[in-house]
Write a structure and sequence with these properties.
This protein is of the alpha/beta class. It contains nine helices and 15 strands. InterPro entries: HAD-like_sf, HAD_sf, TPP-like.
Length: 270
């Protein structure tokens, strides 16, 4: 039998910072949480203990592929429960990790496509530096020499600036995504879906499942046979959906648990 491939976004899809947990129930009824990421000696990301059990079972039933915009270094801070994934997609598809090591051929091919189809990274970085107001920008970051992002004070961020940036980037082959306190500018050909298709080719998977919450996950969801999005995030805010995509009502860490239940259900049926 060919394996089932599960490619899932991580942040605000399967794992959650304390600010994103959305624990709206009374304290006494809140789920037990498992810390899955520590940064600078502090707990950073969580999932419910039930979600951890579901992910462990999913790892035994399917090829689970963590699929993230995080850099390799940021991804390696995460300690997910269950079997160690043989593949991981980092930097929004810029790096395909095989047993923890970036596939050089894949990365070289990605770089060639970006050079051919997009404005250079330096142009976008310089534009952000020139137009972003230090009053609401906390950090400028370049990720893996592939894309850029800003860490901002969300309540001070002008909506019009984000819209103007999106138009400017569109004309240069880039896309813009606002996720929590981060604004990403990412080359359009740098996609999670392309890397997912490559993993499906290598594993022989004929059924692909995916989940994600942001604009940068839309291509991944569309490329999968079945997809799920939580009740929060850019896609939910835009009421985005498509054939084969299920819009879940759950928000926060409860959505991560629901997504894993849906993955397992589909994998069992397959």
């Amino acid at each position: 039998m060919s394996p089932v491939l599960v490619a899932s976004d991580l942040d605000r899809t399967l794992i959650y910072s304390s600010a994103a947990l959305a624990l709206t129930m009374p304290d006494a009824r809140a789920p037990r949480l498992l810390c899955v990421e520590v940064h600078e000696s502090r707990p950073l990301s969580y999932m419910t203990e039930t979600a951890a059990q579901l992910l462990t079972e999913l790892g035994d039933r399917a090829v689970f592929v963590p699929t993230t915009t995080r850099t390799r270094k940021q991804y390696q801070r995460i300690n997910l429960p269950g079997p160690t994934p043989p593949y991981a997609i980092c930097a929004n598809g810029g790096h395909l990790l095989v047993d923890g090591v970036s596939d050089l051929d894949w990365h070289t091919a990605v770089l060639a496509r970006l050079a051919e189809e997009c404005a250079p990274l330096a142009e976008v970085r310089d534009h952000l530096a020139a137009t972003a107001d230090p009053a609401w920008v906390r950090k400028h970051r370049v990720a893996e020499d592939l894309f850029v992002y800003l860490v901002v004070e969300r309540e001070l961020l002008p909506e019009e600036w984000v819209k103007e940036l999106a138009v400017w980037a569109e004309n240069r082959g880039w896309t813009v995504s606002l996720q929590g306190r981060k604004i990403y500018a990412v080359p359009k050909p740098l996609t999670k879906s392309a890397a997912m298709r490559e993993v499906a080719r290598r594993t022989g998977a004929t059924l692909t499942l995916a989940a994600g919450d942001s604009l940068l996950d839309a291509d991944l969801l569309l490329a999968a046979d079945l997809g799920w999005r939580p009740g929060h995030g850019e896609l939910a805010d835009a009421d985005w959906t498509a054939p084969g995509i299920s819009a879940l009502p759950e928000r926060g860490v409860a959505a991560g648990e629901r997504i894993l239940r849906e993955f397992l259900k589909a994998a069992r049926q397959a």
